[in-house]
Amino acid sequence: MNNIMEVHNGRTNYKEFQLGPIDIDIPKGMITALIGRNGAGKTTLLKGMSGISPFQDGDVAYNGTKIDFLDPNIRTKMTYISNDLQMYSDFTVKQALNFISSLHKNWDHSWVKDMLIMFQIQPHHQIHELSKGMKMKFNLLLGLGHQPELVLLDEPTDGLDSISRQQFFDLLQGYIEKEQRSVVISTHYTKEVESICDYVIFMKNGATPLYGEVETLKESYKVFSLPPNETIPKTTAILSFVTSTVETKGIIQSDAVTSLPDYAIVKKPTLDDLFLFVVEKGEIA
Where in the numbering of this chain does the ABC transporter domain appear (predicted)? Predict the structure, then answer.
């Protein structure tokens, strides 16, 4: 697996929060989901990767070469997109496009024009008058207009309704399929990225305790369910479990499933299961 970006020993310390040390790879040509609760460090990590707020310590490599974030050429290859358009709120759509496009020699005017028509966004529209869904689509156009190879998305669908979210992901997947591009999308909604991500990085308290290809991780663990009064086998292969009045549900390493009673219900985990039982409650965290 080839990597488009690698973070080595990335660290950032604030008064009440510490990120890192972070050592992760971002695979080329894949959608990577960055999953964690609010405050886990997702934004700090993405800003460090993009150079908007560089890590205080550590290195970031792009296609195997250490990045110099003062090099303007790196801005043509990657983009960081948040869900904040406040700095353009007094602009018209045309004014914002003119400003951003002036910063990029490789701006694709034809592609942006086609997307504006598709989304029915008029050049004279005031940005502060756009709906939240329209603002997010327009923000995506601003970030993708120079056709970057790597797209870093910081909770882009937060606050959007289900229809706007689906339209957003349709646009994103269409962009990726056009060429071998790579995307990192941060979220605390595991279900919305379950069907589209190939690789996942889980975050907790400024660390990345679990990451890897989605299918590989799902094959490594199994979710089990037992009656609520059942004695749980004593094995370190069970990372965590919770007991309710209905059942005892937990997660176990796949190669230890035979240690469970024959009547245990066993199934493949979802990303939500991995996040809850392995990262949030499990020993790996």
Answer: 4-230
CA atoms of 38 and 146, how far apart (whole Å): 30
Q: What pTM was computed for the model?
A: 0.90
- Whether residues 44 and 66 share a domain: the answer is yes
- Do 139 and 246 fall within a single domain? no
From residue 143, alpha-carbon distances to 17, 19, 97, 193, 276 in Å are: 29, 26, 10, 20, 32
Domain residues for the domain of 245 are 216-279
Give me the CATH number covering residue 172: 3.40.50.300
Q: Total domain count for the chain?
A: 2
Torsion of CA 121, 159, 268, 255, to 10 degrees: 110
* Per-residue pLDDT reduced to its tens digit, 214-226: 999 999 999 999 9
- The full DSSP string for 101-167 is HTT-TT--HHHHHHHHHHHT--TT-BGGGS-HHHHHHHHHHHHHTT--SEEEEESTTTT--HHHHHH
CB count in 10 Å sphere of residue 242: 11
Closest CA to 94 of 124, 115, 121, 119: 124
- Bridge partners (DSSP) listed for residue 49: none
Condensed to tens digits (0 to 9), the pLDDT of residues 96-145 reads 999 999 988 889 999 999 989 988 889 898 988 888 888 888 888 889 99
Domain boundary among 174, 205, 236: 205
Instruction: Kindly state whether residues 143 and 262 are assigned to the same domain.
Output: no
Beta-sheet strand order (sheet of 265-267):
238-243, 248-253, 221-226, 265-267
Q: Taking Cα atoms as reference points, which of 30, 60, 31 lies closest to residue 45?
A: 60
